[in-house]
Amino acid sequence: AIQQILSWRKKPESEAKFPGPKQYPIVGRIHDLPRFSLWLKFQEWAHEHGPIYQTRAVDQTFIIISDEKIAEELLVKRGHIYSGRPQIRSLIDHKIKPNYSALMDRHDMWKYQRKWAHAAMAEAYKYHFYGHVEMEIKRYLGLLLLDPARFLDYTREYCGRVMSRLAWDDATQGRMNGESADTTLHCMSVSGPITNTVAPLWHLPAFINPWYNFEVKREAEQKAWWLNNLRVAKHRFHEGTLPNDTWAWRYFDQLVREGNPSLEQDEEQEVFASCMMGFVNLVGVVTISGPLKFFLMAMGLHPEWQKKAQEEIDRVCGDRMPTMKDFADLPTVRACLKETVRWRSGVPLGVPHQAEQDDEYRGVKIKKGTIILACEWTLNRIPEKYPDGDNYRPERWLEAGWPTYQEPLSRYPNFREGHGMHSFGWGRRTCLGQNIVDDETFVFGASVLWGFNIAQKTCPRTGKPIPIDTQATNSHVILEPNSYQMAFKPRSDERAKQILEEYHSVLGKLKL
Ligand code: HEM
């Protein structure tokens, strides 16, 4: 507070500023920032103050961008300035530790981990993730048939299993992977521990600080779990039983090629490697399960689009289950998925960037340390690019005349290129998961719609559909919708039989 009062006295009156909401002494505008659905407040302010505005929470300045061009100018063209990450109060030293690739500052460790993960992902994409996505979907459909009420659980587990299979050849860790991701996301979100908003509480001494103690335990358990997985995988590599389509195998093979055939490493090196793989593994779960849960919701609420996609699938695949080979022929399925991620963003605030040095933009000085947020929720509702942005309109990707329409439809829309790629962030920090998002969501969407009709559940008392609040989420940085109900019915007895047969055919091959 004293620092602020002194800086007000020093500040020349005329210093140019971006517009923004009225700021109050000391608090700035922290008092009316909601902990849940914060993006709605940012959207409201964007309508009031324009595509770039600034606000303050105590002594931290934020610049909020709601325009693609401005975001590109700052976060891409000036990526050498705006690619840091801000401190999240309730995580410990995440800017420098190996277990937080996406939350580190840009230093050599970040560069190494990012390069490694990018190469591993690109290699696996060449082989469409070695068929694991298609194997896991057969398990998922079987479970959906047997126990449809648990569809939300199974959806997250499907995503966790694909990642754990790719990382360590151990899909059984998929459930734990999802839970661990969820807790980590809670701890790093404004909707999480109160210490993320009332930061001074974080500095209470450890013996009366439940938030700090929780975080120390959470982080230690997660790191120990990752390290154990690495060591098990190393043991299996030595034995010759670790499949070569895992990231762990790729890493050990690299060590061998670098002249370390015995894979001797000290603990620090092992921790580094286990965190590098563990983090990619972890970040790939909820990022995909959130959009998939919203996709099922959208299909239940928009039977007309469900029907269009099913007619397309039936025309192309008939009685066989869809696979990645059908990608080019199922644009309606892809449009429904792409529109889901636009309509209900999985990362609605974007991931914050931080200015690494002083800069000036449009005549306004931006200080080192300023946090820049390109608000994804607002970007997805810019009327010129996304007309009728509040509504679910997959036709914007399918029909000429819409600003986001792109040809050929055998290629667009997708999650790797073309319009709407701002969902995956900006410049040097762009998401590394686009390839797997493309495959995993496509196989999921096409297969579920091939096998099932999805409808809102009816209340047995009123006879009316049970309402779904499509905006109710956990408000994490990467979010999932709150629990909701939906009815799944196999589209025919024949399809149900096929789903069960396919389920049995993979049981022996999958780790359960
Ligand atoms: C629809 C799903 C997904 C969306 C919308 C999404 C979105 C994002 C966004 C907005 C960022 C921050 C970019 C920035 O700071 O400008 C990000 C970063 C990242 N994403 Fe994703 N993501 C998705 C799926 C995935 C998956 C499946 C993986 C991995 C398997 C992944 C791995 C990463 C990593 C490693 C980063 C950190 C990059 C860095 O800081 O250097 N993402 N993602």
Automatic annotation (TrEMBL):
One of its GO terms (molecular function) is iron ion binding. Keywords: Heme, Iron, Metal-binding, Monooxygenase, Oxidoreductase, Signal. PROSITE patterns: CYTOCHROME_P450 (PS00086). Belongs to the cytochrome P450 family. The keyword Nucleus does not apply. Heme binds at C431. InterPro entries: Cyt_P450, Cyt_P450_CS, Cyt_P450_E_grp-I, Cyt_P450_sf, Cytochrome_P450_fung. It comes from the Eukaryota. This is Cytochrome P450. Its cofactor is heme.
